[in-house]
Give the backbone structure.
Amino acid sequence: MATATPPQRDAPTGGQPQKKKRGGIVREFKNPERRTAYLMVLPTLLIILTIAFFPILYAVVLSLTSSTVTGVGSFTGVDNYVAMFQNPAFLEGLYNTVIFTVISVFFEFVIGLAIALAINRAFRGRGLVRAAVLVPWAFPTVISAVMWRLMFQDQVGVINYVANALGVISQPILSDRTLLLISAIGVDVWKTTPFMALLLLAGLQTIPGEVYEAAKVDGASVVQRFFSITMPLLKPALLVALLFRTLESYRVFDLFWAMSNRELESLSTFVYTGVRISQLQFAQGNAASVFIFVSAFLLALVFIKGFGMQTSTEDG
Amino acid sequence: MRRARMGMGRPVGRRGVGRRGVSRRDFLKVGGVSLAGAALLGTAACGGGGGGPQTADDGSIVVVFSMAPDDSGSLTSLIERFNEDRAGEIQVDYRQQPTDTGAYFDQLRTQFQAGGGDIALIGGDVIWPAQFAANGWIADLSDRFTEEMRADFIEGPVESNTYDGSVFGVPWFTDAGMLYYRQDLLDDAGISEAPTTWEELKEMASQIQEEAGTEWGFVFQGGNYEGGTVNGLEFINSFGGEVLAEDDASQVTIDSPESVAGLEMERSMVEDEVSQQAVSTYTEEESEPTFLNGNAVFCRNWPYMYGLVGDPEASQIETEQVGVSALPAAEGGESVSGLGGWNFYINAAVPQETQDAAWEFVQFMTDPEQQKFRALEGGFLPTLTDLYEDQEILDEVPVIALGGEALQRTVPRPVSPVYSDMSLQMAEQFNAVVNGNATPEEAITTLQENLQGIADQAPE
């Protein structure tokens, strides 16, 4: 199809991109190549509309009604949201989720960056180390959560035993929600730091060595090189990694659910309990899922607009 | 579009490719945010079918029967026997369901919401009937399952099927909380009989803990889950506390001195160091090894654990060392066991002929011969009172001989159409008490208020 395009028509889009803006939609569709592209994307768009946007909108609608799991109820405005913010379980979930996200992402970032910097250097056995670092990340979350639960357990748990022997804790880890939250953060850092390191490593590898050499010649110290070259050049990869991790932590479900045996509440476990287990909190569960969606969206916006994250590959 | 490229002018060319890869990934991520949100918002709405009864090639009526996996194989062989007997008339199709009761419940609920689905007969948990019945999803069996027939069954399971004066299910096999004890340790301590009251249990446990050095006295399930609700209710019920008024499921009556006394007893197990603090995180899975490794004198668990005693892979103690009895009672009160087990329910949405056929199968499965077969082959505890005197069963399934009393003293969990929500509240509060985060009075006051709030929202 594309071969049939008259070259003179193709030229403006390729050569003078500023012109296409003025053309608007009509102009876009007059271009057969672009039209083909739109047509080819259309099925995907339709599918996304049906399976993504419709459920989202429907959930928003449900969250504004007194619906139960068995039927759509009457319109109640923001009542569900008000009730949700008065629900101690929701507040606990929100608190846990925010603390969990902030602290775990912070540590993952610091340790991940350190690891990335270390394995970015050329040394013997680098490939092996890179592979080894990824092992925790390769575990399915549920499996690692259950595994850690065993280690925290009071009968057979090695961590619980050591911590008790050292006098760090006075009661079993699993029976205290604060200790559980700290443990969950620890497990998450253990598990996803490699992922962070990997993304940052990819970013580091795009920085050409010559830049450092030039800086060295100019007499820049290690610290100067890190803050003036590494960090700015790493920023795109860094923001991607941070956004990815932040959103993932924010939606934490399986780790909490499996490791604490449903004891630790997060926003997502609140939604699950409301929508799937409870029969009466269906609408509130929907409200909470809308809340997660909106707040996650805002978080992403902050990254994109606030921190100037690149979302497109076009040079513009 | 964005010109926020930083760098030293050089790395734009070839290096840009690598960076472009990353940028595309983060573009996807923004899409991912929406998709992830969408995933969290999952809601279902499907249509159901209608028409006459489903028939097989040979003209027999097909009864789709749903049940959790049949590990012992005894169910499958009975279904085969039934299908052979009734060839050309009725054909039962076994449809396997998740092992996890919650997941199974969830699946059924989704099907019912969608109009009933094709499952005609449900093998389901004892806590389901009120929740299904209140929505009109399962058929009222009061006329089929007559009062006369009910009299042959153990009372607790029948009660669990009774909602709003009608019977919605037929007890299939049962389960009950029991007290396991270490016969050898009791003998050494000069104790001749298992404890009959909670106080006695505590005294014996403390004595043996001190003398024999056994680490823990009594291990039970105090976790924040359904089992925690069952344990808490056993304490409360044994002291005479009741969650719902006897004749009115919409009236919450948990706020009583008896309920408080029950929870005080549960908490005192931890306070007096008869039970470990960690019992507040325990499910059956954690209680089991504590007892089977010989680290506890007493253990509250379901009958299944008896099968593990003496199994070299799971247990360090032998069958001679273990006794089973009914759970202790309050001073001057009666022993009470939490009821578990499974019943038959008939989908109200399937055609009448299919319901009739399903009922035939229910009668076949619950008659003494088949119940006995399942008891001998799979260790499933019968629901017919007479079978507890059957010599062959008593010989082959020792836990029935030992704990028969507990099985007949079962009390169902509150029969309410909003039980799921009530249980979440109770599990949370009971767990807080065991943990020491709430006093029994606080927990009971909170529960009275919250449970009444839930009961008020029940569908009419």
DSSP finds 15 helices and no strands in chain A.
